[in-house]
């Protein structure tokens, strides 16, 4: 049985990735910081024991060793690593202090770098690492700041791993979600400006769903994705690759405060 590690697995995209991979027959170690939420993840396993969890702060110095040890002790192997853990609500460059910069880089670049480094030593040919990045790592994004910097660095790390370890049969790809309906973005959907930017500029007229991202990650872990390496798959309904505006946006009369009349 193949074994996957999924970080940030207590909710949202990580929860979806963990349960989807488990449903496809893998054993999954899900990590997060909230033991209560992780208990819910274990309950969602398709069969008892298929999903194990570890409550850990990924920025702790010993986090990679603890995660790797937990997977090996339970199942004796590691086939896939899904670096998903992240945080949101960034600020633009001029509003970002050093503490915020360090926090974003620590969780979304340093932590996956260190975990991948420790996991690689235990991967065999046919294994893969999937890094969950963002459309803000593909195009410029308003208010991206430290978030964009971290996710952009994770894209570069993805390409390096793909090149360096591809000859060993270890692949690495990135999945870049657009705005996806998760608890992390739920509050932002109350912002009319945020909704317009993401809904009225998306040709496929809905926001992303957790299943959209989880199924893409699962494909990259499958035999069907076994020749895909060093790529970023953008899952955003066309938001980042088009200049689309909805009929509503095109036909509305705009007033100085940005609200349609």
From TrEMBL:
<dbReference type="InterPro" id="IPR002347">
    <property type="entry name" value="SDR_fam"/>
</dbReference>
<dbReference type="Pfam" id="PF13561">
    <property type="entry name" value="adh_short_C2"/>
</dbReference>
<keyword id="KW-0560">Oxidoreductase</keyword>
<dbReference type="InterPro" id="IPR036291">
    <property type="entry name" value="NAD(P)-bd_dom_sf"/>
</dbReference>
<comment type="similarity">
    <text>Belongs to the short-chain dehydrogenases/reductases (SDR) family.</text>
</comment>
<dbReference type="GO" id="GO:0004316">
    <property type="term" value="F:3-oxoacyl-[acyl-carrier-protein] reductase (NADPH) activity"/>
</dbReference>
<dbReference type="InterPro" id="IPR050259">
    <property type="entry name" value="SDR"/>
</dbReference>
<protein>
    <recommendedName>
        <fullName>3-oxoacyl-[acyl-carrier-protein] reductase MabA</fullName>
    </recommendedName>
</protein>
<dbReference type="InterPro" id="IPR057326">
    <property type="entry name" value="KR_dom"/>
</dbReference>
<dbReference type="InterPro" id="IPR020904">
    <property type="entry name" value="Sc_DH/Rdtase_CS"/>
</dbReference>
<keyword id="KW-0964">Secreted</keyword>
<keyword id="KW-0134">Cell wall</keyword>
<dbReference type="GO" id="GO:0032787">
    <property type="term" value="P:monocarboxylic acid metabolic process"/>
</dbReference>
<feature type="domain" description="Ketoreductase">
    <location>
        <begin position="2"/>
        <end position="192"/>
    </location>
</feature>
């Amino acid at each position: 049985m193949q074994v996957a590690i999924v970080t940030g697995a207590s909710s949202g995209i990580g929860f979806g990735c963990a349960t989807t991979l488990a449903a496809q027959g893998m054993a999954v170690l899900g990590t997060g910081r909230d033991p209560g939420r992780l208990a819910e993840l274990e309950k969602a396993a398709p069969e008892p024991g298929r999903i194990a969890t570890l409550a850990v702060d990924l920025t702790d110095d010993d986090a990679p060793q603890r995660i790797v040890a937990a997977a090996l002790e339970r199942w004796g192997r590691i086939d896939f690593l899904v670096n998903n853990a992240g945080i949101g609500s960034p600020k633009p460059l001029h509003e970002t202090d050093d503490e915020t910069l360090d926090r974003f880089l620590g969780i979304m670049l340093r932590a996956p770098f260190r975990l991948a480094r420790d996991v690689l030593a235990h991967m065999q040919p046919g294994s893969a690492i999937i890094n969950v990045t963002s459309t803000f790592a593909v195009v410029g994004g308003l208010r991206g700041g430290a978030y964009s910097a971290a996710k952009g660095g994770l894209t570069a790390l993805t390409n390096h791993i793909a090149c360096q370890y591809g000859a060993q049969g270890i692949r690495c790809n990135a999945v870049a979600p657009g705005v996806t309906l998760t608890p992390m973005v739920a509050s932002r959907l109350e912002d009319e400006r945020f909704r317009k930017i993401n809904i009225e500029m998306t040709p496929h007229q809905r926001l992303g769903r957790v299943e959209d991202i989880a199924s893409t990650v699962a494909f990259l872990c499958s035999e069907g994705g076994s020749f895909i390496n060093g790529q970023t798959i953008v899952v955003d309904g066309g938001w980042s690759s088009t200049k689309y505006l909805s009929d509503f946006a095109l036909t509305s009369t705009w007033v100085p405060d940005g609200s349609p009349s």
